[in-house]
Design goal:
By secondary structure, this protein is mostly helical. The protein is built from six helices and two strands.
Length: 139
């Protein structure tokens, strides 16, 4: 599935919920299904700067695609990074770099997050794109 299709799928999933309490719970549940990052990457080198909570993000390239793993010490933030990984992991660097993130606005996520969490979300996206840029330059 390409990035746009995954984003559409997420928009559809969020539209099933009637209120934000249910959506927050869904984000938290998504965090519980996040594939765990290896302990060796839970160091300061992999922390995303700009997040209030600790968020570790690791990326490696397999068969031309970028595979992300992550973790966070906060349940909501863990859900947010789980959404980002679902969208971007397994995609090629160029597609990641060219992808827009309008789906975040479409599901209403930004407007329902505290300013610090919204900034953290922007930092997550920035870090994902930085990894993609590094892999793209290496190729």
């Amino acid at each position: 599935m390409d990035i746009k299709e995954i984003q559409e799928e997420i928009i559809d999933e969020f539209s099933m919920f009637e209120d934000w309490e249910e959506r927050y719970q869904y984000v938290i549940d998504l965090g519980k299904s996040l594939p765990l990052i290896s302990e060796q990457y839970k160091t300061d080198d992999y922390i995303i700067k700009g997040c209030q909570s600790k968020v570790w993000l690791h990326a490696e390239q397999q068969n031309g695609n970028v595979i992300f793993t992550a973790d966070s010490d906060a349940i909501l933030t863990k859900g947010l990074i789980a959404i980002m990984i679902r969208v971007f992991s397994g995609q090629n660097p160029q597609d990641i770099l060219q992808a827009d993130t309008d789906f975040i606005d479409e599901i209403g996520l930004k407007e329902h997050l505290s300013p610090t969490r919204a900034n953290g979300l922007v930092s997550m996206i920035k870090q994902i794109k930085m990894y993609a840029l590094a892999f793209s330059a290496k190729n």
